[in-house]
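In line with agreed milestones, the collection of sequences with tokenised folds has grown. A representative record is reproduced below.
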Amino acid sequence: MNAPDPANASEVLVPEGAPPPPSFQSGRIRKWIVVSYWIVLALGIPFWWYTTSIQRLGLPRTRIQGLYELEETFKFPTDIILDTSGTSLDTDAYIGDLDVALRKGNVLNHTLNWKIHPLGMIFDRDGDHPKSANWQAEAGSEYHVKWSPSLPRPEVFERDLLISSPDEAPKGSASQANELAQLIEGLLVPSSADAYKLRVVQYAPRYRLAFSLLNEDASAGGGIMGWDVERAIERYLQPTLHQLGVLHNFTIESQVQFHAPLAFDPESLVSPKEGYVVDEDQMKIFVNSAEWTLASGTSNDRVLHFIIFVPAATHRPLRVVSPGGGLSRTNAFVIPQWGSIIVHNPKTVVDGATPQSYLGASSLADHFALFDTQLRALLGVQPLSAGVVSVPSPHTMGPISQWQMDALLRHRVIENVHGSIDTVNSIVKLVDRIEGMPVGDSVKSDVECTLNALEEVQEISRTGGSLAAMLQASAKASVHSSKAFFNPDMVAMLYFPAEHKYAVYAPLFAPITIPLVITAIQELRSWLKNRQLGRSKVE
């Protein structure tokens, strides 16, 4: 056996007669192999860094901070015009009393930038100069109050409010002004009870209305096989849909199902012959989502359901219990922000008569009239103040008065503006809280579009523009703010934070990195040892 040169530790001891060692066991080749691994790793790091880096563009924070001022100062310009002609009222004194009553109530001050004017004298908001005679008020900014004889109760016609003449209601000016102030407040800014807020669906530019005729079990006999839903919608719902078209685009679909079982057994009254009831607790689980197919999945539009449920012959008559505990007169109930259900019990078949198996438009009149009322309630149309009568107008052509439409438009604009502001502020808070939160071009563009739309709403409000234009701009702000908040990159980061990234990378890189580091250390030690041996030999 030949002794290796101690100065060259890369030589391998080879017994006599044994085959030579593989070339890769040579010290020099082994060093190059290790170096090549580190070269590949060094070249791959920039590429990995580039492909995994997060784009984090700056947001227009100065403009976003200005939204707080917009939220606090945003109001609708409103002129209240008093037509006291034909009355014995002192116009100036009455306007003063009405002004005091409205400011005392403090209902209009939160949302309306309102002023009271006598007929024929409308002043600019920035001064005391009368507007020109050819000035025309934008829709939703000017309301007239008129006195008319022989009116048993107040009436609204378009944007006019007609009340009984003071000669026929002899009271003091201040007392009449207080009553009129309460009436105006209820029409311009209807109060919203908690039940109303819970029932009304969130604003969306598009809605899908799904009308379903569901038979619990048509195979048992006595089912309804069809209905004239198209004509019923045209006859009883079209006027309302036409009016609400200013706020929403509606898509309508319908279906008939012959087997839609309940998820519970209805409770019988005193005896099954007297019928069955659905109580308040069972209303919450009435919709059997597991076995009912209620709407198509072809669109992401928000869906409102309107169901006529036909109970099986063994569960008839099926009655709905009203919130007061008695039997419901309409035999229907509303599911907040979802839709409504009407329980239809077919008429009892007399001997020899043909059972009813089809519902024509006339047979659906009561049901769709109720659907019409429930649709308005779900979309936020507030009823008129107690005692106020709506006089039909050829310009409205629907059951919703102009005062109600304006109140709904204002409510939806406020909802969109406040919702957009909250969403944009939430985006800023998320970006500040999560360092790795990406802010790409699409997010920044959507945020800027939201700010532009909100500024447009403010400009329309400042110049006294129409409520429809304000709604369109506020809806644009709402859509873009939602797109920015639910951007796929931002949503992914919420559910995949940096800690998860480390948990993924550790099992991948640890098995590769540890052997490379250990081998590099060994080669470095070998090189240092060889260097020391070489110096000793020279000495």
